[in-house]
Write a structure and sequence with these properties.
The complex is a heterodimer of chains A (228) and B (256). Chain A is mainly α and 228 residues long. Chain A has eleven helices and no strands. In chain A, helix 5 (87-111) packs antiparallel against helix 9. Helices cover 33% and strands 25% of the residues of chain B. In chain B, helix 3 runs antiparallel to helix 4 (151-168). Chain B starts with 15 loop residues before the first strand and ends with a helix. The chains are: A mainly alpha (228), B alpha/beta (256).
Chain lengths: 228, 256
């Protein structure tokens, strides 16, 4: 087992999920409340990584974050090293790549919130931000968890973007999925077995959490009522 | 349709001056009135546009042509001619809709306390909360969740929530309380007691009310000013006895 790759993958997934939640919450809320035209454009751009070959996204990011472009040079000046082939660069790539997986469940969840609740809160004098975190978020907790789990697991599983943008640098950009690829290339099937199994079980557990959520939540509600 | 609606000079002294022209569904709403009494009831059959009027004042509906001017402190909340639209949460208005819409993740007490949470000086918050809970007979339900409340109980929580938000308001002036069918789904004696208790308490707190009703008995109990509406128009406005006596005469004349 390549523990360096495991630790790197976990750091990348945790970092990506944290950044994604900060970005996806307001973005999804805006999409839910937005007007048809601008909303359609933003939704299409956000969903792009779903259909785009990961290598295409990786290629553009490589060019954009490398020393060939103005923003890339500016970041290089700021950080002292180019973003491409670095952990920070990988983080940016992962955020963009997993964005639809974080945004879509939230858009679905927010869209399902009865407008009556939002009006009730506004009619009591609550500011829009207060309505969002005191009414909308508590009513969409399961969407929030789905969004986080999907962002996390999708980051763990990404391959094409990482390969294009990160290269294969141990400790900096070699994630588990890349490490698995290396192990197979080296005919080290014993190691590849363990890596593949770990990724398989982890993904299955994550999906189980999502699908078990509705029944868990119902139980929560019952217990809360009894306790109160 | 005219681009602007003008309000009379008397509107300057009223609590609220409203003029609305709006087409919604098959209804053509065309009303204008002023609130001058502590409690006014929009009275009329269902489908006469009462709820749309309330929702316009609360800021949930943008009519084709409308102006809503708050009296004290004077402020234009809505003027379609001047493109003025103050968002709901900035209006000196607190409202309870006809459907209760209790927050399911909060207990009864937490629901009632919702509108008090962003006050700057919540010194007497517990006191106000207790009074409002007692007033709406919710004290024994305080720690319950909202999932298995009856329709009447939900309605009481919804009204209590709006009342608490209005009482707790700590800015300049007093909020206008908008109550859509506040006693719907409540039985005779309890309804009468709640109506009288609410009227007395809100008078004491100096909070003006505009409510919606299609119940004659409720209007009498509240001793309110009545604005009688039908088919999107204001038929007449005056003290409850006067307006409803005219209504009675009209009904009798139809029989003879």
């Amino acid at each position: 087992m390549d523990f360096e790759a495991l630790s790197l993958t976990l750091r990348l997934a945790v970092g990506t999920t944290a950044i994604l939640l900060v970005i996806a919450l307001p973005l999804a809320w805006w999409i839910t409340r937005g007007h048809s035209m601008s909303r359609a454009v933003v939704q299409a751009v956000v969903a792009l990584p779903l259909v785009l070959p990961p290598t295409v996204l990786g290629y553009y990011l490589l060019v954009a974050l490398g020393p060939l472009t103005a923003p890339g040079r500016w970041m290089m000046h700021l950080l002292g090293h180019p973003l491409a082939f670095s952990f920070s660069g990988l983080l940016i790539g992962s955020v963009l790549y997993s964005l639809p997986f974080a945004v879509q469940p939230l858009v679905a969840g927010f869209g399902g919130v009865d407008a009556g609740y939002i009006e009730a809160a506004a009619g009591l004098g609550a500011k829009p931000a207060k309505v969002f975190y005191s009414v909308v978020l508590p009513l969409t907790r399961s969407s929030l968890l789905t969004s986080a789990v999907l962002a996390f697991t999708h980051t763990v599983g990404e391959f094409g973007v990482v390969l294009m943008l990160g290269g294969n640098i141990p400790g900096a950009t070699r994630t588990l999925s890349i490490s698995l690829y290396d192990q197979v290339q080296d005919f080290n099937y014993a190691a590849a077995d363990r890596t593949a199994l770990l990724l398989l079980v982890a993904s299955l557990v994550a999906l189980l959490v999502i699908y078990l959520l509705p029944s868990l939540r119902k139980m929560d509600g019952r217990q809360a009522d009894i306790v109160r | 349709m005219e681009g602007r609606l003008t309000l009379s000079a008397k509107a300057q002294e009223s609590l609220l001056a409203v003029a609305i022209r709006h087409r919604v569904g098959g209804l053509s709403l065309d009303v204008s009135f002023e609130l001058t009494k502590p409690w006014t009831v929009l009275f009329g059959p269902s489908g006469s546009g009462k709820t749309t009027v309330l929702r316009t004042i609360a800021g949930f509906v943008r009519p084709d042509t409308a102006s809503v001017v708050c009296g004290a402190p004077k402020r234009t909340l809505l003027d379609t001619g001047e493109r003025v639209f103050v968002p709901s949460h900035q209006r000196l208005v607190r409202s309870a809709a006809q459907s209760a819409r209790l927050f399911p993740h909060r207990s009864v007490r937490e629901n009632v306390a919702y509108g008090m949470e962003w006050r700057s000086h919540p010194a007497d918050e517990a006191q106000v909360l207790r009074e409002v809970m007692e007033l709406m007979r919710l004290t024994t339900l305080a720690d319950r969740g909202t999932a298995d409340l009856s329709g009447g109980e939900r309605q009481r929580v919804s009204v209590a929530r709006a009342v608490a938000a209005a009482v707790a308001f700590d800015g300049v002036g007093k909020p206008l309380l908008l109550l859509d069918e506040p006693f719907a789904g409540l039985d005779g004696v309890l309804r009468d007691e709640l109506a009288v208790g609410l009227r007395d308490s809100l008078t004491r707190w100096k909070i003006p009310v505009l409510s919606v009703s299609h119940d004659v008995g409720e209007c009498y109990l509240l001793g309110a000013e009545v604005i009688r509406m039908a088919e999107g128009k204001v038929i007449e406005q005056g003290p409850v006895e006067w307006v409803l006596e005219r209504e009675r005469e009209r009904l009798l004349s139809r029989l003879s």
